[in-house]
Amino acid sequence: MNQSAQLDRRFVWHPFTQMRDWLKREPLVIAEGHGAVLRDVHGREYLDANASIWTNLHGHNHPKINAAIRRQLKKIAHSSALGFANEPASLLASRLISVANKSKGDAARPSQISNHKLGKVFFSDDGSTAMEVALKLAYEFTRRTRGKTARPKFLSLDGAYHGDTVGAVSAGHIDLFHKAYSGLLFKPDKVMSPYCYRCPFNRARPERADARDYRKCHFECVGLVEKKFAAQKRRGNPYAAFIFEPLMQGSAGMIPQPQTWLKQVSDIARHHGALLIADEVMTGFGRTTSHSAFRTPHLPLFACQQENVQPDFLCLAKGMTGGYLPMAATLTTQNIFDAFLGEYAEFKTFFHGHSFTGNQLGASAALASLEILQSPASARARKNLENVLRKELQSLWPLPHIGDIRQVGMIAGIELVRNWRTREPYELRERAGIRVCEAMAKRGVLTRPIGNVIVLMPPYCTTTAQMQKMIRALREAVAEVF
Questions:
Q1: Domain that holds residue 159
Q2: Residue 157 pairs with which residues in a beta bridge?
Q3: pTM over 0.85
């Protein structure tokens, strides 16, 4: 066994991993990466079909991001943001605000409710901490605007996952991940997610197509959101904020939202005076952009923009540095920022921070990534990848254990079932998704399931041939396992 594998087995505790199973076999040790290809210590090559847990946008060892980091290393790697500013973080904040305030323009009808533009950036380390910042700011802003006796209450979606810090865990509703910590958490309310494939209001029989395309309902899920807000308002304590992943819920099982759902529920929240907290840790930086919906080359980078939803908090991480370094940001409005201004003795400061806030290396990588994203070549590559992915996914429908295939932009979730005609799911203990991903790894394709859902989220540099290999490996793996 390779020395790194031996040391790993002896000393490392892996996240979201049953270590008893891990210790039964030699771990796959990644040694190199170039483009969409990973290479292990034995020289075997694999396609990175989940972009290294949804972070790598442009491929491994990208020359422009490498060069940006090297240039910054010649200056300084890190200095504190507590009392000091730095060049790359300041420039990155400006660029993030610029791209976040662009709207789709010719899309859904504009909101009739006034929104504040995003104007301030608070840097942190990862998606969990970006959400933690938003929750703390929303909580304290509500108390400062409604009175110190206010009891800020949050609403989030069933199946939500927003990270693993205590506040972020509190905002989630996946018992498998969160129930063990229930004694540590605050208690938000939840409302049903628009999971068309398993929605109790969807009267359509299963077809060989994305369930959003053949659903038969009256948007009852939107009506339930209205009822939640109205009921909480009658209690005399309107919701402080509504928390959501726009267009697609990730760890819930890649649950896509039908068109206009996001716009409708956001307007409901606004009408009831709630702040909007958009978790775009997964969906941001072009992942969910549907190129077929745009006639302009200036594509929006965030999911909210596709339905002209302007959040009060935009939480970003994962792909922000192109998958190179841990860095996150919480974008918010001048209005919220102003509530924390005062004389020193008033102690209105936002008492929250991180040692590596605004790290220069991370900011330099993120600036390079944004430059790549906004280039015509990158836009063309993403459009091509989206189209190839959509076309290749069609080859999976003949498999009887494929229940639903859902794609939003450059993200796909493929749900495994016992029988597509009944939608009967596999029990988690049967490890259906894990077994399929293990069979894919034998064919040179790496990804990680969410329960019974196989996730495909490759880097934007993935070629047509590589995308075809990913789908072929999935198709053969499903046939082998079942």
A1: 87-374
A2: 191
A3: yes
